[in-house]
Structure formats: structure tokens, C-alpha cells
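Sample entry (134 residues):
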Amino acid sequence: MKKKYIEVVLSIILIASGAYLSKVWPNVVPFFLMGFGCTLFGKGVGQVISDKAMNKDLELKRQMEIEVNDERNRMIEYKAKARGFDIMTYAFAALMFSLALMDIDIWAEILIVITYLTVEIYSVYYRMQLEKEM
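Predicted structure, serialized as C-alpha cells:
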């Protein structure tokens, strides 16, 4: 529970430092800090509110634990992730192709290709690991 409060405090610090740096140093970094801080703040506050609601209603807490740990729900989650990965693979390839046709900066294209290849290589590696286990 304490970790979630630390997350909220850290997010406020990131937002404040990003706001201050945007005045002093107008660059991309301050806005990245503010965006990351806002994301962390939303996640942290959501977890704190969720935990407080769960602590008040023990029946709801037990029901949520059953839903999270249920094997059927886990299989649905894994299948949804696999389908999302399949769609992402084709969408990423189409994005790379369209950006190449738009003649963008080569370093941006290389960065996207490296990210794409990293994800695909990790997918193949993890698949090989799972095949060895099963």
C-alpha cells in the first residue's frame, strides 16, 4: 500500500519538475516528464481508490480475486493478448512501409525497424522457451 502512495508522490514531483523545466528549458524532455507523471499519477490514484474500496467490501474483494485468478479468465486474457500481438505485427509492418514511402528521416525509420525486430525476436525466443517446457 505504501508503494502506491510513493508512486503518487513521485508522479506529482515529475509533473512539477516537467512544468518548471518547460519554462526554463523548452525542449521535449519536460513534456515527456509531465506526460509520464500524469500517467503514473492516474495509475497510482486509481490503485489507491480501488484498494480502499476493496478493503471496505470484503465480498467484492474476494470476488475480484476469484475473477483475476480464474483459469478461464486467464485463458481469455492470453488469447486476447495473442490476437492483439498478431494485429500489431501487421500494423507495425504497414506503418514502417508507409513511413518509408513518405521519405521520413532515416534515423526515425531505423528506430522503428529496430523496435519491430526486437519485439519479433523476443516473440520467437519466448516461443522456443515455451516449446522446450511443454
